[in-house]
């Protein structure tokens, strides 16, 4: 059994930390909210982020980053994409020896187009970096916490790290597949949130299954176009981190991206929808990044580009759908 640190006490960090504790590892979580730390340590719950779940009795948390970073050689990074750089900079201030970072976040940084593993590598001094991996796939925290069968992929350029990640997480309800396509696994997880927002919008508008199937299929086409342009293996998008995550996020009542889109389809503004959520909706910022990337690389991404206009330029959602339907005739 191993010592593992988990950075982030939100839904996904808590669900994964709980799996690791269930698997017998000595897990210490870090979060910045004292009340959540106290709740995990004394009541074994995290009601705001994982309602009605009793956490493993040995799962511990602290708000002292230095203690959590020094606790283990394996560090799971589970904060929203927007917080990655600042959290990694704080870790770099207190890090004392080589660490393996396994991140579980889904996003791309606007303007720089950096993937999360790239941001982590940039922010940690090279002498402290053992390697980096991503864990991604169709996985809602609420279901994993209930021990419902869940499968994800873990990708890294380093085979040993892929195997370590597979070994520490895998159990009878959480199945991990290794994958050597770090770029594809990160891009698939990030871009599916854009399509889930759009699927929420069409559901909110009252359109049916035809519209959603069209979005998912054509959405996968544009994810694959941008992903391969960034160096991903196109086959990755037919796996867990591609179509798998696209299915779960576009069709699940748990999805925050779908829920946010659904509110937009029902007439709420983006600001109103986001303030109703209270949890991270990664697809909004990723739409900004992917829209810029589509322009910069000359990649056709009509769904992303229409959604960008809805989210950031005030385009009416009905008009956004009409624009997509009335595009130039083309072949599949
Ligand atoms: N929730 C899921 O089911 C799920 C599944 C797979 C992947 N993910 C991904 O995991 C990542 C984290 O999502 P989540 O669902 O846990 O989000 P969440 O909204 O449930 O929790 C986010 C956590 O990050 C903390 N945080 C935010 N900014 C911070 C900062 N600057 N410094 C320190 N802590 C900060 C918040 O306090 C909170 O504890 C996202 O990229 C998401 O896409 C989530
Ligand atoms: O709730 P969402 O929309 O952030 O999706 C969570 C996970 O990424 C699903 O795999």
From TrEMBL:
Q: In which pathway does it act?
A: Membrane lipid metabolism; glycerophospholipid metabolism
Any Pfam family the entry gives:
NAD_Gly3P_dh_N
Q: Does this UniProt record's set of keywords contain Lipid biosynthesis?
A: yes
For this protein, the record's PROSITE patterns field holds: NAD_G3PDH (PS00957)
Q: Where in the cell is it found?
A: Cytoplasm
Residues that bind NADPH, according to the entry? 11-12, 32, 49, 106, 141, 256, 280, 282
| Positions bound to sn-glycerol 3-phosphate | 106, 137, 139, 192, 245, 255-257
Annotated Glycerol-3-phosphate dehydrogenase NAD-dependent N-terminal domain residues: 3-160
Domain Glycerol-3-phosphate dehydrogenase NAD-dependent C-terminal stretches: 181-321
Top-rank taxon: Bacteria
Task: Indicate whether ATP-binding appears among the record's keywords.
Answer: no
Q: Which residues form a coiled coil?
A: none
Active site feature? 192 (proton acceptor)
User: What is an example of a GO molecular function annotated in this UniProt entry?
Assistant: glycerol-3-phosphate dehydrogenase [NAD(P)+] activity
Q: What is its EC number?
A: 1.1.1.94
Q: Which UniProt keywords apply?
A: Cytoplasm, Lipid biosynthesis, Lipid metabolism, NAD, NADP, Nucleotide-binding, Oxidoreductase, Phospholipid biosynthesis, Phospholipid metabolism
**Catalytically driven reaction(s):** 6-phospho-D-gluconate + NADP(+) = D-ribulose 5-phosphate + CO2 + NADPH; sn-glycerol 3-phosphate + NADP(+) = dihydroxyacetone phosphate + NADPH + H(+); sn-glycerol 3-phosphate + NAD(+) = dihydroxyacetone phosphate + NADH + H(+)
Q: Which family does it belong to?
A: Belongs to the NAD-dependent glycerol-3-phosphate dehydrogenase family.
Cited function: Catalyzes the reduction of the glycolytic intermediate dihydroxyacetone phosphate (DHAP) to sn-glycerol 3-phosphate (G3P), the key precursor for phospholipid synthesis.
Q: What is this protein called?
A: Glycerol-3-phosphate dehydrogenase [NAD(P)+]
């Amino acid at each position: 059994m191993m010592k593992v640190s988990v950075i982030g006490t939100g839904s996904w960090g808590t669900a994964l930390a709980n799996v690791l504790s269930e698997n017998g590892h000595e897990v210490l979580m870090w979060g910045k909210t004292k009340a959540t730390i106290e709740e995990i340590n004394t009541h074994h719950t995290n009601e705001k982020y994982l309602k009605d779940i009793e956490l493993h009795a040995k799962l511990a948390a602290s708000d002292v980053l230095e203690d959590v970073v020094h606790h283990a050689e394996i560090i799971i990074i589970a904060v929203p994409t927007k917080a990655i750089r600042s959290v990694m900079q704080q870790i770099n201030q207190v890090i004392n020896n080589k660490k393996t970072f396994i991140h579980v976040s889904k996003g791309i940084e606007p303007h720089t187009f950096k993937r999360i593993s790239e941001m982590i590598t940039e922010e940690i001094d090279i002498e402290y970096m053992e390697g980096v991996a991503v864990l991604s796939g169709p996985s809602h925290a609420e279901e994993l916490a209930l021990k419902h069968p869940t499968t994800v992929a873990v990708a890294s350029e380093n085979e040993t790290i892929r195997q370590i990640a597979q070994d520490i997480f895998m159990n009878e309800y959480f199945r991990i597949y290794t994958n050597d396509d770090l770029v594809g696994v990160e891009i698939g997880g990030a871009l599916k949130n854009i399509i889930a927002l759009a699927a929420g919008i069409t559901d909110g508008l009252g359109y049916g299954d035809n519209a959603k199937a069209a979005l998912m299929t054509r959405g996968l086409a544009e994810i694959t176009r941008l992903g391969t342009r960034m160096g991903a293996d196109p086959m990755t998008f037919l796996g867990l981190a591609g179509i798998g995550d696209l299915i779960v996020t576009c069709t699940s009542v748990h999805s925050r991206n779908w829920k946010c889109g659904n509110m937009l389809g029902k007439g709420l503004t983006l600001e109103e929808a986001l303030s109703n959520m209270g949890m991270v909706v990664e697809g909004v910022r990723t739409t900004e990044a992917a829209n810029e990337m589509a322009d910069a690389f000359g990649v056709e991404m009509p769904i992303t580009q229409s959604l960008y206009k809805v989210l950031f330029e005030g385009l009416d959602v009905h008009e956004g759908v009409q624009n997509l339907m009335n595009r130039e005739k083309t072949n599949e």
